[in-house]
Amino acid sequence: MSIGTPKAIHPSPGIAAFAGSPAEEGKLHRSINWTGAFWVASGVPALVLFSVGGIAGNTGKLAFLIWTLSMVMGFIQSFTYAEIAGLFPNKSGGASVYGAAAWVRYSKLIAPLSVWCNWIAWSPVLSLGSSIAASYILMALAPQPAANAPAVLDWLATHGASLQMSDADKTAAAVAALSPTIRTWTLFQMTIGPVSLSLNAAFFIGAALMLGVFAVQHRGVSGTASVQKYIGLLVITPMFIVGIVPLLTHGVNWANFSPLVPLAAPNAPAAGEWNIAGWTLVLGGMFIAAWSTYAFETSICYTSEFRNPEKDTFKAIFFSGLLCLSQFTLVPFTFQNVLGVEGMLDPAIADGSGVAAALARMVGGGRFVESALVMLMILALLLSIMTAMAGSSRTLYQGSVDGWLPRYLGRVNEHGAPTGAMWTDLCFNLVILAIACANATSFFFILAVSNCCYIIFTFLNLNSAWIHRIDSSHIPRPYRAPTFLLALGSIFAFVNLIFLGAGAKVWNPIALWAGLITAALIIPVFCYRHYIQDGGRFPAAMFEDLHVGTERAMAERRAGLLPYLALIAGVAVLLSANWFFAL
């Protein structure tokens, strides 16, 4: 069976006129084809910059393998998403919305959980990406001295003897003392539980970047796609060059890839063993990599904005997946090949601020090349921010239209942009930005909590496909995934829960529980919309999308107890993995 060609079917009522239908007032506009969605999703490869150092710090020489395996899993899972997206040509918001339509028959609370968790996973890309981009801009405007700079050595010679601390802390103190004031200035800072919050210079620069992205997206998805096409070409082409040129000029340094064993401890180059602690670090790498490698599913967030959703949906996710497959395997491999584990453990690589300098060294460039790569890194991060705002805002929009989230999120402007959802994204991320800009610990805590929600969404969505096959078997599918890929996706749903249960604790001891609490926040939000705003009834449009006429018809559950058994099994796998694996 071909996996690359959508199945030819007779169009459903109302679908035939998509290509030329006028935009309806108050709704998203059908103004792009699959290439538009591809360019909007082209910011996903830049997500490798968020955690390439963090994963290397926890998995050592296994890092390249972690990225490759994770990307292969994400690509296989995408065929499941392509099928369920084709069932709903009038919806936007991505795979979580299409999966929620399967679960709503079995639980009013599980369905909005899928949508909520997907938004919580995607939305922080705005703040996390802005914080890294802000650090690059700060570095260009107010660079801090290197640890071995003459000024630092002179300062240590003068003041070092009087400091009662380790040599590493003395060097850090010297760098801080000689850094421009703007790098340490903050208007306000505080600590709340496991994270810190700071309104520093990076925060204000990051906020300005997010406002700029908001202005571009205000023009609608067609305008966004046009802008991202050119930024994408500027970013993706150099990323390919950086990934390929060092391999051609220097070959492969196999010593940087063997022996294939875990680290003995995080952020230390000493090799460990394949014991429980080693496996826990590896699963922690698979956990955090999923946040980046699975993310190209955002390319199907725009189904109701496709001119021809029957053809465009599959092409969008398939070709976006091929782009990510190349980038997420090539770039980490080349990084590790050139830098080695010791180079990858550099704190500047872990927090993202030293990635551009490392790229310049990889291609043999000087200061000019490094400056150009800094600009490209900023553009790459802006690309990921634009991708995130476009996708996450449409998830909020469709969640509102379907009756999961408050009504105001369903507002759109004259360009068909979901402005109510975009403003919510922006305000939420200003708070997250203040946390992400505080320090690396707070940055990775946000990333880990976000990914806890993403794994929950992934589990629910991969299982939704077989529920749709049972409950909606009579509905035509523009693309029907091979059954073996659908089954493999269902198995991966439980494998991902192992990553979550075992791996979240690698990044923060309370990350898993913080993630579960964050996911549970959908309960009061949904209850407000469903029981207070809507009086306990779903919007009529939701029943039409489910291909049923009434709420009574929706109550037919052909899958019986199977969805509930899947949920129970999922909880058991999650808790067992969390109990068994430990550092």
What shape does the CA trace take? Answer: globular
Beta strand count: 2
Spatially, the strands of the biggest sheet line up as 1-2
CATH superfamily: Amino acid/polyamine transporter I
By CATH reckoning, the class would read Mainly Alpha
CATH architecture: Up-down Bundle
DSSP helix fraction:
55-70%
Query: CATH topology, which one?
Result: Amino acid/polyamine transporter I
**Average pLDDT reading:** 82
* Structural class designation: mainly alpha
Percentage beta strand: under 5%
Transmembrane segments: 37-56, 62-82, 197-218, 230-249, 276-296, 316-335, 372-397, 442-462, 483-504, 510-528, 561-581
Main location: membrane
Keywords: Cell membrane, Membrane, Transmembrane, Transmembrane helix
Subcellular location: Cell membrane
What is the compact description of this entry?
The protein is mainly α and 583 residues long.
Characterization of this structure:
- The protein has a single domain (34-148, 179-580), classed as Amino acid/polyamine transporter I (Up-down Bundle), CATH 1.20.1740.
- It has a two-stranded antiparallel ribbon with strand order 1-2.
- It is built from 24 helices and 2 strands.
- Mean pLDDT is 82; it is low at 4-23.
- Helix content is 66%, strand content 2%.
- The protein is mainly alpha-helical and 583 residues long.
- The radius of gyration is 24 Å and the shape is globular.
- This is Amino acid permease.
- It comes from Methylobacterium durans.
- InterPro entries: AA/rel_permease1, APC_superfamily.
